[in-house]
Fold site-specific DNA-methyltransferase (adenine-specific).
Amino acid sequence: MPLPIFPWPGGKRRLIKHLYPHFPNHDTYVEAFAGGAAALLMRPVPARLEVLNDINSDLVTLYRCVRHHLEEFVRMFRWSLVSRQMFEWATMERPETLTDIQRAARFYYLQKLSFGGKVEGQSFGLVASGQGPRLNLLRIEEELSAVHLRLANVVIERLPWQECILRYDRPETLFYLDPPYWETEGYGVDFPFDQYLAMAELMRSIKGKVVVSINDHPDVRQAFAGFDLVPLQLNYTIGGGNGRDKAFGELIIKSWDDRQASLL
């Protein structure tokens, strides 16, 4: 089973086992906020049609390069080093001056080495415990090959989340929405509160079904009032990976009333 290829704010690996039981039967699966794409990559059974969407152009370029140009992408790291100096040089590069493969390689390098997987305000990910950044340059191709194969039949889009939903809205479609968490930094995009209100309104009007995962916050509960809200407590490591876990509240929100769901 392929795993996410880089850390991402609000990554879903710990949520997956709680999330999948709420997925109804569907033919088309759409992630409108791809991020690390854990929910798609770790599915036990692919859907007939799968769509991976994100508004972040660097992220979309990376997924497209891993899918279509893996060999050339891996070659970009042949003479690379894991070092603070190279990390700082990469942050200073202007993405618009790079080719798509160079841009994807830069984004991948920074995400793998940045503290906490942040997309903005990145710093070199050496933590107080002495645990260094997790990037093995000798195993990049091995780590990416499974994702390369998994993305072979996936449609990769770069659309605003609303446009993505409207484009693929069918009765047989399941939309999984993992938007930036409310009052949480590090995603690299602005996501004001009215976006959650617009999301709730759209969920009431479309033909397909929607599952949302988000942090449990009174404002969020108010925005999605009237939907099926499933609260969870999940432990996430804090303090830069020094082994301490802290419980955080999460919500799984469903756009329909039927509580019978099965991924398979």
Remarks:
- Residues 239-243 have pLDDT under 50 and may be disordered.
